[in-house]
Amino acid sequence: MSTYHFELCAFNIQSCLLADKLGVYRVELCDNPSEGGTTPGYGTIRQVRERTGMKLYPILRPRAGDYFYDDDEIAILEKDIQICKELGCDGISIGVQQIDGEIDKERMKRFVELAHPMGVTCNRAFDATPDPMKALEDLIDCGCERILTSGQEAGAPQGVALLKALVKQAGNRIIVMPGAGITAENIGFIQEATAATEFHGSLRKPVKRFMASANPKVLDSGQVYLPDEKSLAAILDYLRSPAFPAR
Q1: What distances in angstroms separate CA 246 from CA 191, 195, 242, one per listed residue?
Q2: What is the C-alpha separation between 26 and 23, in angstroms, rounded?
């Protein structure tokens, strides 16, 4: 019998505390949701590690945009890997491409070696590769334990055909984890269509600020997001149900 896990993409300590309370298996800790997630700060990683018992996988992504990095950015990533190890993280979420879009195997292997004994998820750099089946085999060769992917579509619900093929090709060699656009309403469809056993999502919604006063002329304060508690609880209940996935 398969065990099903949900990984929450969390953008702040409050999201992590909620996830821990509800029994989320793992969090991908990020900063900057509007940019698709970048490396969280040292203090945030440490506080989440000290306050929660979930598996913790910070995303290591020094900037928004593509996953083709220069030497300085690679050095930053290597230092961040060491910091995550020192803080007791269970793993990292990271990806790096060559200029032609293929996985940079040499650097990914280096990241996996530096991260050990932490686990390594390849983030959605995978979704920008020109040949996903080759990229899957490359990441297996690199020693990654997991691939986060939407099936190279805007969201996992649209990418189920490729996700199914990836899960089948991966077998027991690597975990293919659908992510992006997953909700309590469609997770059953995605699981049935792909045979995946791990799923990823943020279920995020904007929350009102608690300031008693604000300046409407200042528009660069950004937005705070938290996961929708009811939706997150529904997904977790669904995955734990004895009837799942036979519905």
Answers
A1: 10, 11, 9
A2: 9
Say whether 235 sits in a helix, a strand or coil: helix
The stretches in the chain having pLDDT less than 70 are: 1, 219-221, 243-247
Predicted local confidence at residue 245, as pLDDT: 62
Distance CA 178, CA 163 (A): 7
> Given its phi and psi angles, is residue 146 left (phi above 0), alpha (psi -120 to 50 degrees) or beta?
beta
In the chain, the amino acid numbered 159 is G
Q: What is the pLDDT of residue 244?
A: 64
Question: Exposed e or buried b for every residue in 152-162, given b needs 16+ CB within 10 A?
Answer: bbebbbebbeb
CA distances from 14 to 51, 206, 207 (A): 11, 13, 12
Give ∠ CA 190-195-201 in degrees, rounded to 5: 45
Q: What is the pLDDT, as a whole number, of residue 247?
A: 45
Pairwise CA distance, residues 115 & 112, whole Å: 5
Structural domains of the chain, with CATH: 5-240 (3.20.20.380)
Closest CA to 27 of 72, 91, 73: 91
C-alpha–C-alpha distance, residues 116 and 202, integer Å:
27
CA angle 222, 228, 229 (to 5 degrees): 135
Strands 204-206 and 198-201 turn out to be unpaired
Q: Is the peptide bond before 117 cis (omega within 30 degrees of 0)?
A: yes
Tell me the longest C-alpha to C-alpha distance in the chain. Answer: 56
Beta bridge partners of 149: 178
With residue 28 as reference, give the H or E element that holds it. Answer: strand 26-29
